[in-house]
Amino acid sequence: MDHKHQSKHIRANVCFYEDSLQWNGTTYEPTYTCFISTTSIIDPNTRIMSWLEGKHRDGKSFDDVEAISFKNTSVHYFPLDLDKFFPNLRIVKIENCGLKSITRSDLNGLENIDTLFCPGNRITSLPNNLFTGMYKLRSVVFRRNRIKIMSSKVFTPIIKNLIRLDLTENVSIDAGST
What we know:
Elements: E1 8-10, E2 14-18, E3 21-23, E4 26-28, E5 33-38, E6 40-41, E7 46-48, E8 67-71, E9 74-75, H1 82-85, E10 91-95, E11 115-117, E12 125-126, E13 139-141, E14 149-150, E15 164-166
Parallel strand pairs: 1-7, 5-8, 6-9, 8-10, 10-11, 11-13, 12-14, 13-15
Antiparallel strand pairs: 2-5, 3-4
Organism: Clunio marinus
Protein name: CLUMA_CG018070, isoform A
């Protein structure tokens, strides 16, 4: 089966909303965050549908969401179309979800995010063009993955604005392989 042409949809998620996001002792405020607590993205090319189960805070809507957090749930492939559902996203966090890979096309539409957290997953490589056009990214975390292969130039497009990069606790990184 050709996975590039297959498209599945997330039809039911349970999320709750908070006015801040905490990660590793750092609080990002004020950041209206959608926490996805129940989902299953186990097929490539899975798209977010136009509704989620969950109640917004008073006066808030999907347009107000600046961060999305998937944690300890099944996200084996990067969810597509996050920008269409959450147009003002700045932070994407996929933690301990079994994420297997991330490609440049996964980030299409997310060029305005400034923070990408993907710790505790199963990512084995970072493509050379991953951050092409992602000029607003300032914080990137791929801690506790299985990264073995990464080009020495993968961070070149974002190096001027990068203030945090965490690649610790990976198997081994061969910076000259690709």
